[in-house]
Amino acid sequence: MKTLKIAIQKSGRLNDKSVELLKNCGLSFENYKSSLISPVSNFPLEILFLRDDDIPEYVQDGIADLGIVGENVIEETEVAVSYLQRLGFGKCSLKIAITNNSDITDIQGLNGKSIATTYPVILGKFLAKQNIDADIRTISGSVEISPGLGLSDAICDLVSTGGTLKSNGLKPFADVMSSEAVLIGSKGSENDDLIQELIQRIQSVLRAKETKYVVLNVEKANLPGILKLLPGVKSPSVLPLAEEGWVAVHTVIPERDFWGRISQLKQAGAQGIVVMPIEKIIL
Ligand code: ATP
Ligand code: MG
């Protein structure tokens, strides 16, 4: 049987969540920090630990069949790979930022200015689309200090909370792209049975993450009102309790509706509400 290879970031912002996702898929492996390759003992898969910048090309060239990497890195390296699944972590945006005292007021104001970035390809395409002629200064890191050093008028960098911009006297000015971690595969890999199985495992973990298992007790008379508030995976289960006239309702609800729904349930007579995480949802 052939063995697949998946490339993930060796260390950095995506490493922990990538490892956690694969472990939640039931894959058993050692997260060796010192080794570049780790075999999975219960699935025909090997994990390659790489710099994130190298992952798109490894996957494009078929050295790895799969990879987990930020969309920003894929766009920047301009590789031909298949997008298999968005993963919901590593969310950030690539933004142009200017100094707090900058005289630039609108996007056309970037004409003739210099912008420091580690993303020259994405920034170049963005500026071309807006018909802006700016000087892109490609540097390899610590972009946010370049306006303070007089190296550029603006920067284009990844932002999640905006804290780094603020502490360097910068403010966000224009959104270039938003990004999250995605699973990519070599072209055509989506037709592989083993890869399909892995994608299905990942999807069942992601679905479970978005939902909670809720159990609550309610007097039978209040049951119709409660059921209206609970659109479950199918319909909720209703089980009799030892106490006459009471039932337990079991259901699965989306995390995003969670708090609003809980207070409505209480108002409708729900008691003893227990909320539990779900490991996997297999449809
Ligand atoms: P490597 O050593 O693997 O090259 P790196 O320093 O290039 O790592 P990290 O800073 O670990 O990369 O970021 C990895 C990815 O995490 C980014 O490419 C991006 O997709 C995502 N990310 C999420 N939030 C942020 C953020 N605030 N700043 C930078 N990257 C972020
Ligand atoms: Mg990198």
UniProtKB/TrEMBL annotation:
Subcellular location(s) per record: Cytoplasm
Ranges for domain Histidine biosynthesis HisG C-terminal: 208-280
Regulation (activators, inhibitors): Feedback inhibited by histidine.
Pfam families: HisG (PF01634), HisG_C (PF08029)
Acetylation found in the keyword field: no
Location of the ATP phosphoribosyltransferase catalytic domain: 51-203
Keywords per UniProt: Amino-acid biosynthesis, ATP-binding, Cytoplasm, Glycosyltransferase, Histidine biosynthesis, Magnesium, Metal-binding, Nucleotide-binding, Transferase
InterPro entries, alphabetized: ATP-PRT_HisG_long, ATP_PRibTrfase_cat, ATP_PRibTrfase_CS, ATP_PRibTrfase_HisG, HisG_C, N-reg_PII-like_a/b, N-reg_PII/ATP_PRibTrfase_C
GO molecular function per UniProt: ATP phosphoribosyltransferase activity
Protein origin, superkingdom: Bacteria
Principal location listed in the UniProt entry: cytoplasm
Pathway(s) annotated for this protein in UniProt: Amino-acid biosynthesis; L-histidine biosynthesis; L-histidine from 5-phospho-alpha-D-ribose 1-diphosphate: step 1/9
Enzyme Commission number(s) from the entry: 2.4.2.17
Catalytic reactions of this protein: 1-(5-phospho-beta-D-ribosyl)-ATP + diphosphate = 5-phospho-alpha-D-ribose 1-diphosphate + ATP
UniProt cofactor(s): Mg(2+)
Main function: Catalyzes the condensation of ATP and 5-phosphoribose 1-diphosphate to form N'-(5'-phosphoribosyl)-ATP (PR-ATP). Has a crucial role in the pathway because the rate of histidine biosynthesis seems to be controlled primarily by regulation of HisG enzymatic activity.
Similarity section: Belongs to the ATP phosphoribosyltransferase family. Long subfamily.
PANTHER family: ATP PHOSPHORIBOSYLTRANSFERASE, ATP PHOSPHORIBOSYLTRANSFERASE ATP-PRTASE
Protein name in the entry: ATP phosphoribosyltransferase
Organism: Mucilaginibacter calamicampi
